[in-house]
Queue: 4 jobs
Job 1
Amino acid sequence: MEKDIGPEQFPINEHYFGLVNFGNTCYCNSVLQALYFCRPFRENVLAYKAQQRKKENLLTCLADLFHSIATQKKKVGVIPPKKFISRLRKENDLFDNYMQQDAHEFLNYLLNTVADILQEEKRQEKQNGRLKGGEADDDDDDGPEPTWVHDIFQGTLTNETRCLNCETVSSKDEDFLDLSVDVEQNTSITHCLRDFSNTETLCSEYKYYCEMCCSKQEAQKRMRVKKLPMILALHLKRFKYMEQLHRYTKLSYRVVFPLELRLFNTSGDAVNLDRMYDLAAVVVHCGSGLRALQTPADDSPAPEGTLGPVRCRTDVELLSGPHVQNLNPTAASPRRSWPQNRAALPSPSDKRIHRGVSARVHLSLQGGPRLTRPVTRRLCLVCPWSDRVSVTLRRG
């Protein structure tokens, strides 16, 4: 694959390795690929590996996997994340089956688990008096100390509520590792974020209890971003519960992804208001149901200046238009059943919509068989039959 793509496309000291799919681990592999090419996250995981921890946990297994990729002699290849998957299934029954899981749920679980491990180890160090200088810190903290996971992904929301009777404004801060936003027809990420912070009126049975008025009053409520995270993770809520059908259904809406994003829904006391985010990774949930294939939107190696499995600004000229787009599937598109342990072969209609996505590169990175057809460099960032997309935006 390195010969086909060309050695000039591979930055020095960077490796592009696919992860073998063990039948139902597309959701996991996709998130791990995105996190590996998130440099702050990868550097901290590799630093954790260097500490030579003895007790095995999910973080040590992740560190071993990242270290294995980073120390490979070859530039490209495939690695089976056997140890990590085995540990994941031992620690959480949700992932201990042969069903496809949700990438967003896995991302949340992984980040929170890593943070919990780091906080517990810090607590143990305090108890054992192994802090710097050999002295234990006996102060009672209000809560666990933030970790490098929080430094990278955590932001803060401000929930502002204004009583329409006395005009008193109350606010409450809430930390987040990712933002879940609703989607509508023919919309964009920017529009989704704007809707996220739209003012909502609380009335009728949803009236707000005002402490100044000592009674329930009509009020206006809105969410604003108070602290912008270093890396912003967005989750598009593409599943909606339909009461008439008594089940969840997909929202196959077209959503436009800008390559650069600036948040405008910030609070008045927010800092770094001019912070720009660059699109770094997209994970797509493919299929018509809640359990389906999940894959990185582009499995090709990325040139210098990007964060890995998803091409960014350097390939703008190869895309059809100024934005990266989530194409809407046609109503006649058949439901796909994906063979285990290999990536799916695109249908003729998929090839047309994807406009030449390299199936050879895709299959190589997924651990499946190689195709012999030529590699095409033109890329489409997301699959046309996607149900759910998680977007990671790197701070510019």
Note: Residues 290-390 have pLDDT under 50 and may be disordered.
Job 2
Amino acid sequence: MVPVLPLLLIGLPLLCVLAAVGAVPWGAVAAVALALGLLALVLVLVRKERAPRPDGG
């Protein structure tokens, strides 16, 4: 599985720097951040569904 956290820690600041110098519009940075947040939420929910329950069910 792709390590998401290191990609976020490197990618988001890089996008912000690109937006600050005008290479990328801020709307694109916001869209990418929103998409990554939703992806992380989905991954957490999927992981909780797959985890075995403590009561054996």
Note: The CA atoms of residues 8 and 37 lie 10 Å apart.
Job 3
Amino acid sequence: MNLSEPFIRRPVMTAVLTVSAIVFGVLAYFALPVNDLPAVDYPVILVHVGYPGPTQETMANNV
């Protein structure tokens, strides 16, 4: 007796199991919690450069 034999001999049971798996899958899909805008922590890099004298524009262009 192999794994597929009971499913071949009982096609109605196979159809009921398949339909129930699909129905429960659809119900589980709609029961999943979904956020429109989830809270995400983006990586941030902070650069501190000691360069006395230049303007902010010079620092922004050169660093």
Note: Residues 5-62 form one domain.
Job 4
Amino acid sequence: GNGGGLDSAEIKEIWDQFTQAEFLDDLDIATAATSDLPRTAGQRRWDALLKIFRTAAGAPADGKTPEPVLNLIMDVQTFEDVLTRDWNLLPQTEDRLFGQVPMEHRRSETSTGTLVDPQHALRSAIGGWVRRVVIDGAGNVIDYGRRRRLFTGAARDAVMLHSPRCTWIGCATSSNVCNADHTIDWQHGGTTTTTNGGPLCPRHDRTKNRGY
């Protein structure tokens, strides 16, 4: 063909990701039903190829992929506490370490009221956008800032380069669809450094967080 090696590698990587997603779907079904996988490897590859074309056909004409939106609301004191105490990304000043905002006035939740662990909210913010919103005592928005990225990608990239695959034993999910995960979780004394992290696929990230 006319494509170069890089094009071939990109096509293979896309196909591998879609095929892996089909495998994980089958694995979840088989695990729930304690039975064999419902499709053969060949059937999964065919379904993955079909999904690639359907996904491409459903993409917007301008080539921009729409991003999923999940609004997380966190007060600035909680936000800075996590950055300071657990992520070591802000100077550990007395004001930040011993903030005066009482816990009953703290917020870390979705816009629909679902409570979210501040650590998980910050993890989502790494790959998402942050917007500063100032609210007065009556709950009125008085300043609505522009959205921006929370962090540059250098620290996350360094963690993800530790392994080309999910670090869960036996998992072959490519690292480019994985989360940057703490090897030793922050609640167990783990720090947010490049030496205490690695790629973990979303499925095994959820499994680990459930304590398995």
Note: Residues 68 and 170 are 30 Å apart (CA to CA).
